[in-house]
Amino acid sequence: MILNRRKFIKRILFALASIEALFLIKGSVSKVDTSTKKKKLFKAGKVDEFEANKFYSFLTGQFYLKRFEDGGFMALSIKCTHLGCVVNINPKTGGFNCPCHASQFDKLGEVTSAPATRPLDFFPIEIIQGEIFVDTSKAIQRSSFSKSQITYA
Ligand code: FES
Q: Looking at ligand 1, which atom is closest to the CA of residue 101?
């Protein structure tokens, strides 16, 4: 079959449009993959292993786990919200100090001294059959502390 010039150009344009459509579909599938990111559960230990009013360091998980007096748990990110340095527990205040530019945070992770302007991020906690799991796949940003950030057994 002999193609004339006009038919040949139409077929080329159709092929290019099809290839572009495939890339668009691939792009939208990729977006779906990132939004349905899987949980990354870090097993911290049994509820009974943690004393009240104490922070526990889980540097490989990148969080500090706090058990409050009422039994609730909170997992705070170790990363300073200023520029991401690792904050240290301050035994005097019960909060955190950043060694890089001297930001300070209280025991709830709220800023008490700049340059940081927002509280430490926190991670969701799941308690399954008395075992604490911290979902380290998503650090949650917040503007202030709220009771809803604490997880109870
Ligand atoms: S990175 Fe913490 S104060 Fe700058």
A: 3
Ligand 1 centroid–CA 78 distance in Å is: 11
Gap from CA of 90 to ligand 1 centroid (Å):
15
116: how many CB neighbours lie within 10 A of its CB? 23
The ranges assigned to domains in the chain are 1-33, 41-149
**Quick one: which of 45, 76, 94 has its CA closest to 145?**
76
CATH architecture type of domain 41-149: 3-layer Sandwich (2.102)
What's the CA gap between 7 and 130, in Å, rounded? 70
Residue 93 has which token pair?
């205040």
Query: pLDDT truncated to tens, each residue of the chain (153 aa)?
Result: 555 767 756 775 566 555 555 444 444 444 444 445 688 999 999 999 999 998 999 999 999 999 999 999 999 999 999 999 999 999 999 999 999 999 999 999 999 999 999 999 999 999 999 999 999 998 999 999 999 999 998
Which residues line ligand 1 at a C-beta cut-off of 6 Å?
80, 82-83, 85, 98, 100-101, 103, 115-116
Residue with CA at minimum distance from ligand 1 atom 3: 101
